[in-house]
Amino acid sequence: MSEGTIKRLTDKGFGFIEDGSGKDVFFHSSALSEARYDELTEGQKVSFNIGQGPKGPRAENVRVI
C-alpha cells in the first residue's frame, strides 16, 4: 500500500494524489474506501493501491489516514 497527499480535487468526481516521488496519481471517486468524495480536502494524507487504468496508473482503494 502506498501513501500520498491529495494534490487536486475537481468538481467532476476525480482528483490527483502526489505519491511522494513527484508523480501525480489519478483517482476517481469510485476508488474511495470509507470516505465520500465531498468530504475530502486538498492536502489530506491518504493510503492507496496502484492499479492500471486505460490511461495509465491510477489509485485504487483510497483511504484517508
UniProtKB/TrEMBL annotation:
Q: What is its main location?
A: cytoplasm
Pfam entry (one): CSD
Q: Which GO terms describe its cellular component?
A: cytosol
| Keywords linked to the UniProt accession | Cytoplasm
InterPro entries in the cross-refs: Cold_shock_CspA (IPR012156), Cold_shock_domain (IPR050181), CSD (IPR011129), CSD_CS (IPR019844), CSP_DNA-bd (IPR002059), NA-bd_OB-fold (IPR012340)
Name the domain of life this protein comes from. Bacteria
Q: Where are the transmembrane segments?
A: none
Q: Does the keyword Repeat apply?
A: no
**Alphabetical list of SMART domains matching this protein:** CSP
Picking any one GO molecular function of the record gives: nucleic acid binding
Where is this protein localized, as stated in its record? Cytoplasm
Protein's name according to its UniProt entry: Cold shock protein ScoF
Q: Which organism is it from?
A: Gimesia chilikensis
